[in-house]
Amino acid sequence: MGPTASGKTGLAVELVERYPLEIVSVDSAMIYRGMDIGTAKPDAATLARAPHRLIDILDPAERYSAARFAADARREMEQILAAGRLPLLVGGTGLYFRALEGGLAELPEADPEIRASLAAKREREGPEALHRWLAEVDPEAAARIHPNDPQRVQRALEVWLLTGRPLSELQQVRPAEPGVRLWKIVLEPPERAELHARIERRFDAMLAAGFVEEVERLRARGDLDLSLPSMRAVGYRQVWRYLEGEYDYDEMRSSGIAATRQYAKRQLTWLRPEQAALRVAPEPGKSMEKIAEVIERAFEIVQCTNKGLS
């Protein structure tokens, strides 16, 4: 686990080459085909060394959910365990980890008409208006969802409109299916400035590698827009707006870097309560001894209990 640009993929590949592990991606953007540069998806050479499950499984026009991820991940993990290896979950999408570990409450399916209505209201009145509305109907959800996180704000309002009950209330009802036991390793740069520098370097590298051209190809399809989760991924919406003429190149670059830093900050906030996790700095070759202890202990427990994911 860890914030964006912290080096999770590089460390995961190193671990796979040392131990009988197999990677399951926990990333809500890498699931989409054709979104390679902006998601920092492993390249072909890396995937040949360390195959990743649950990447390139969806078209960008499709929608995915944390509940669907949990089901897909369970299936992949059972296959890995059956082959005598250990699943190595790698990614920064906290909601996916939560869905897998603790399960998710039963929530209503998305309603296209309500979503379109909420999106239109946001365009007319701004994101603050939706957040104020959420604060009236579900103060608890509003307190934990940032006003600049339109996807989650609109989903919370959608749930309230569909059920008449606050999202925060429904989320307290735990599902019957037990969660998965996870041994957690958090990759965390010791200094925020270091992470910010890594984010800036990586975004510039993405631009140099053809990120704008990648978004241009996606935009040219004609069936994608900024209302879709895929196109709301960090970086993609900034480049899209550049192509629409809303930003010049420098504004797009600075906005993309700033949005990525904000995303990393939210990820670090999410990871802060993980008291039982092993926290290591993203330094190649270092901390491997501590990580090895976690992995070897996990193998011992799985082999002794022979209970698979439980």
Question: In summary, what is this structure?
Answer:
This protein has helices at 8-18, 44-49, 66-82, 94-102, 112-125, 127-137, 139-144, 150-163, 167-170, 192-209, 211-220, 236-243, 249-271, 288-305, and strands at 21-25, 52-53, 86-90, 185-187, 278-280.
Q: Keywords, please?
A:
310 residues; mainly alpha; Rossmann fold; Histone, subunit A; two-stranded parallel ribbon; 14 helices; 5 strands
Describe the structure.
With 310 residues, the chain is mainly α. It has two domains: 8-104 and 176-305, Rossmann fold (3-Layer(aba) Sandwich); 112-170, Histone, subunit A. It is built from 14 helices and five strands. The protein has helices at 8-18, 44-49, 66-82, 94-102, 112-125, 127-137, 139-144, 150-163, 167-170, 192-209, 211-220, 236-243, 249-271, 288-305; strands at residues 21-25, 52-53, 86-90, 185-187, 278-280. Strands 2-1-3 form a three-stranded parallel beta sheet, sandwiched between helices. The protein has a two-stranded parallel sheet with strand order 4-5. Helix 10 (192-209) packs across helix 13 (249-271) and helix 12 runs antiparallel to helix 13 (249-271). It starts with 7 loop residues before the first helix and ends in a 5-residue tail after the last helix.
